[in-house]
Specification:
The protein is of the alpha/beta class and 522 residues long. It is 49% helix and 16% strand. Strands 1-2-3-5-4 form a five-stranded mixed beta barrel. Strands 7-6-8-9-10 form a five-stranded parallel sheet, with helices on both faces. The chain has a three-stranded antiparallel sheet with strand order 11-12-13, with no helix packed on it.
């Protein structure tokens, strides 16, 4: 079994739960969920409401806090299909995710809601709502274009907020924000601001704000029209949608690069606060200076501490010096002991190396060598005898009589194969000759020459040599060539027989001929 990696980070359950909670809340900060209310038993004793939203495939836990519950115009009921707006989060106590509902409305409130949902699905399928296509807002725009009504409170709120935070050049494109023509005017305004050339008489905006005050679904319907959505999607300038209040949603909010809860919020998102930037720069400058001074002082203290922590040279060599003294004391005893051990080993080896022992070992080696020499000689004699017998057998097989017999047999086989090849070649030639004769007869039968031999003729155009098959194809005075079986003659084309309406052409008498075995091919 493989050991786990030593550097793998260990998390606690709380750390994992907190990480999952942050991930869910960042990815689904504000969503709309459609589903059927399930498990609703009314508000809890604390005033909060807990239930589930489900469809035919899944379910999600939902909660409405007491403060939101008291502000809802529509109260939840068991089994009712609703559209809930809120934020996704998790409950670490039971490892579940849930939606915290801020707004609740019944699904299918009418034809407008159905049409709005149909358009939303259509644009979503086209990718107009994808986050990947949305543009990043400039941090400090120089020119801001505002598309809104020039007489409402919205433009005054935006101008007032921009003047308080960071005064910039504002271009107002006045439009109607309600009514039948509002959608076309808003789309035209977005396209007009995008068409401005950089550096022209009218500066091109760095950012667009499309704004309107709150209202009902019917009042805000102009911002759900397809012409407005597509104009916003095609805008090359980043666009902020600030239509209605925080709970109001339009299709323009989905396609815009950023959605503001209110027109004033759009102005706050568009520019930073100038005074805060100046204060922040001053603060950062002071922090940078202080950090540099503190870093220098910390490095100085650490250097001094490190210098104090270094040992003296005498202390560094104290332990090695003591170790050397101990080893020097042990070395004399170790040498004496080692010499004694080697003397004992040498004595034992000298006892085994006496002249009588060496003589006996030499005698045994001599006897063994003689025995091996006798065995080798006998083995060589046996090998020579086997090779001689093998050569005698080969000599008996290679006699002149046996070689002459094999040559005779090979010559006889070659003669038989030659005769068989000649007979096969003759039969092949006969078959091909018969086939050529058959094809020649078939060619003569199918050739038009055989037809001409029976009294027919072929008329050709003298210039193109192409056969003429119709009298109408012959012009008056045209040069013709008539081919017979024994040659060709020239002719000139005249008027077709029977052109005079007063004279009926004489019907040629069909010659009678006996039926033949071969019919005409024409």
């Amino acid at each position: 079994m493989a050991e786990p990696a030593a550097n793998t980070v260990e998390f606690t359950v709380s750390e994992i739960s907190a990480a999952v909670k942050r991930t869910v809340e960042d990815a689904f900060s504000y969503v709309r969920v459609r589903g059927e209310i399930s498990g609703y038993r009314g508000p809890h004793s604390s005033g909060h409401a807990y239930f589930s939203l489900k469809d035919d495939k899944a379910r999600i836990e939902a909660v409405i806090w007491r403060g939101t519950m008291s502000k809802l115009r529509f109260k939840p009921e068991e089994g009712l299909e609703v559209v809930a707006t809120g934020k996704l989060t998790t409950f670490p106590g039971s490892s579940k995710y849930q939606i915290v509902i801020d707004a609740l409305e019944p699904a299918g409130v009418g034809a407008l809601m159905a049409l709005l949902e149909e358009r939303r699905r259509k644009f979503a399928a086209e990718g107009l709502f994808d986050e990947a296509r949305k543009k990043k807002l400039p941090f400090m725009p120089r020119v801001i274009g505002v598309v809104t009504s020039p007489t409402g409170a919205v433009i005054r709120d935006i101008l007032h907020r921009l003047a308080d935070r960071f005064p910039v050049h504002v271009i107002l494109c006045p439009v109607r924000v309600q009514g039948e023509t509002s959608a076309a005017e808003v789309a035209a305004a977005i396209e007009c601001l995008n068409a401005l050339e950089p550096g022209g008489a009218i500066p091109r905006p760095d950012l667009l704000i499309v704004a309107r005050g709150g209202g009902s679904l019917e009042d805000l319907w102009g911002f759900n029209e397809e012409i407005v959505v597509r104009a916003a999607a095609a805008s090359a300038i980043p666009l902020i949608s600030a239509v209605g209040h925080e709970t109001d949603w339009t299709l323009l909010d989905h396609v815009a690069d950023l959605r503001a809860p209110t027109p004033t919020g759009a102005a706050e998102m568009a520019v930073p606060v100038r005074s805060e930037l100046l204060a922040g720069l001053a603060t950062l400058d002071g922090r940078l200076t202080g950090a540099m001074l503190r870093r220098i002082e910390r490095e100085r203290r650490e250097f001094r501490a490190a210098a104090r922590a270094l040992p003296r040279p005498e202390d560094l060599f104290a332990i090695p010096r003591r170790t050397f003294d101990e080893l020097a004391n042990r070395l004399g005893r170790a040498l004496v002991m080692n010499t004694q051990i080697h003397r004992n080993q040498f004595s034992r080896a000298a006892g085994r190396l006496s002249p009588s022992n060496l003589a006996r070992q030499i005698d045994r080696c001599r006897e063994r060598t003689l025995a091996l020499s006798d065995k080798g000689a006998r083995a060589i004699e046996r090998q020579i005898e086997r090779q001689a017998q093998k050569l005698e057998g080969l000599a008996a097989r290679l006699t002149p009589a046996r070689i002459t017999g094999q040559v005779v047999r090979c010559r006889e086989q070659l003669t038989v194969l030659s005769e068989r090849g000649e007979r096969a070649l003759e039969r092949r030639i006969e078959r091909l000759t018969a086939r050529v004769g058959t094809l020649a007869k078939l060619l003569g039968t199918l050739s038009h020459k055989s037809i001409l031999a029976r009294g027919f003729a072929v008329v050709h155009d003298a210039a193109t040599k192409m056969p003429i098959t119709s009298a109408k194809a012959v012009a008056a005075g045209a040069a013709l060539e008539i081919e017979f079986s024994d040659g060709s003659v020239g002719a000139t084309g005249g008027a077709p027989v029977g052109d005079d309406p007063g004279t009926a052409p004489a019907k040629p008498k069909r010659p009678s001929r006996k039926p033949s075995g071969q019919g005409s091919l024409f």
